[in-house]
Specification:
There is one protein chain. With 186 residues, the protein is mostly helical. It has a single domain (2-172), classed as MFS general substrate transporter like domains (Growth Hormone, Chain: A). It is built from 8 helices and no strands. Keywords: Membrane, Transmembrane, Transmembrane helix.
Length: 186
């Protein structure tokens, strides 16, 4: 989900013109920097609420459901701006909420499965793997954005995630043990 962060600002700046056309005249006099400030403040508020409710999300969907379903929903939302650019900014709010809700669930999932000895090393290794995955995704999104625009870059991330995630779910069957039974807590 974080691979799309670099494309938020250029897409939002382009979207402001369309949004300001329908807002009251007083808002149209705000400088772009102020609008971005309000946008990022909104992201922080939404992420805080989502993070605070991560436990509820996990209770409702199960651990596996939270780490599979929420990112898939965000990835599908990445495709909306391809059809209607005006949906881009609301999609970024979904991105920030989804990311904030999934992070504590995923962290707890790892914590629950790692012995106390070597826990820091394992969590650091997981963080490094996530960072290594982000690098090619950011390069892909940036390349597509350079060629076809930032909205297409976000759409490409959605397609790649859905294809890779769908393949992983089909092959690995997350949340199911070798016996075919769901893991405890899922």
């Amino acid at each position: 989900m974080s691979a799309a962060d670099d494309l938020i600002q250029p897409i939002a700046v382009d979207a402001f013109d369309g949004y300001l056309a329908v807002l009251p005249a007083a808002a149209s006099g705000l400088p772009e920097e102020a609008l971005l400030g309000f946008l990022y403040a909104g992201f922080t508020a939404v992420a805080g609420v989502a993070s605070d409710n991560a436990g509820r999300v996990e209770s409702a969907l199960g651990t596996t459901g939270a780490v599979v379903i929420l990112p898939a929903v965000v990835a599908v939302c990445y495709l909306f701006p391809l059809a209607a650019t005006a949906t881009a900014v609301p999609v970024f709010f979904v991105l920030k909420a989804g990311r904030a809700a999934v992070a504590p669930v995923a962290g707890q999932f790892l914590n629950d499965r790692v012995e106390s000895v070597g826990r820091a090393t394992t969590l650091s290794a997981a963080a490094m793997v996530f960072a290594l995955i982000r690098v090619p995704l950011k390069l892909l999104a940036g390349g597509v954005a350079d060629l076809a625009g930032p909205v297409a870059g976000v759409g490409a991330l959605g397609v790649v995630f859905l294809l890779a995630g769908g393949t992983l779910v089909a092959v690995e069957r997350p949340g199911v043990t070798g016996s075919g039974e769901p893991e405890p807590g899922d």
